[in-house]
Amino acid sequence: MSYEVNGIVLATDDRGFLLDLNEWSPEAAQVIAQQLDIALTDSHWPILHLLRQIYIDFDLAPANRAMVKVVKEKLGPDAGNSIYLMQLFGGSPARDAAKIAGLPKPPHCL
Q: Which of 31, 63, 79, 109 is flagged as catalytic?
């Protein structure tokens, strides 16, 4: 699997996660989200940028429970609850948000 963004093919692993964090862009996020049938809105971007910052700081894409906790701490209780995150990113918010943010698959996500 790969994604084409602005005429450039972005390499992925066999599950569609980017192999190179530096190839991510907002345009890449749009293409990846579209493949997941997610229409990105203004509500998605703070979470995607937060996840990228966590990965840069800790070399880790958080799993669901940790994602809910950190989003709640950084973006407030309205954004940091599992129901809201599932509404934005589907049944596996940590996995799909990480994929859209250009990060590796979080540990323990199917």
A: 109
Amino acid present at 94: A
Active site residue 109: yes
pLDDT single digits (tens) 32-70: 999 999 999 999 999 999 999 999 999 999 999 999 999
C-alpha of 88 from chain center: 11
Structure tokens at 6: 């602005």
Amino acid identity at 79: A
Q: Which option is the CATH number for 2-100: 1.10.10.370, 3.90.79.10, 1.20.1250.20, 1.10.3720.10?
A: 1.10.10.370
